[in-house]
Design a protein that fits this description.
- With 135 residues, this protein is an alpha/beta fold.
- The protein is built from six helices and seven strands, in the order βααβββαβαββαα.
- α2 packs across α4 and α3 runs parallel beside α5.
- The chain is globular, with a radius of gyration of 15 Å.
């Protein structure tokens, strides 16, 4: 079963919030980093993506969703389009420039191209089995 994880509203920043708290960039970065770390720690498989598993909003995210669904993986999808902080924060967190990003048992696996290549070469399923997230 796939689920979408919402970003806490405290990590969303609008123009009014910036006026009231001009030094909030560091605090927002910390909140975003903490949200990412907590999400990865609490869920065995997490896909940071554009859109949600039921409605991916880019082709690369759709590829990852199709692969994970085909394999029958239970995962959580996190829509990075919920906030600019999350979209940039996940890139900084992983030091990887693109989205989607797949994490398995806290470990960054890769983006769409890597996930697709691992699936096509037969490496992805054994990794998921080895990590205990797929029977």
């Amino acid at each position: 079963m796939t689920r979408a994880a919402p970003v806490p509203s405290s990590s969303l920043k609008g123009p009014i919030r910036r006026k009231l708290s001009p030094v909030s960039d560091t605090a927002e970065t910390d909140l975003t980093h903490d949200f990412i770390a907590k999400t990865i720690a609490e869920h065995p498989v997490v896909l940071f993506m554009k859109g949600v598993p039921d409605q991916p909003q880019c082709g690369f995210s759709a590829i990852c969703v199709q692969i994970l669904d085909h394999l029958g993986v239970d995962y959580v999808g996190v829509n990075v389009l919920q906030s600019d902080e999350l979209r940039q924060g996940i890139k900084a967190f992983s030091d990887w420039p693109t989205i989607p990003q797949l994490y398995v048992k806290g470990e960054f696996v890769g983006g769409s191209d890597i996930v697709r290549e691992m699936f096509q070469s037969g490496e992805l399923k054994p990794l998921l089995v080895e990590k205990g997230v797929l029977a």
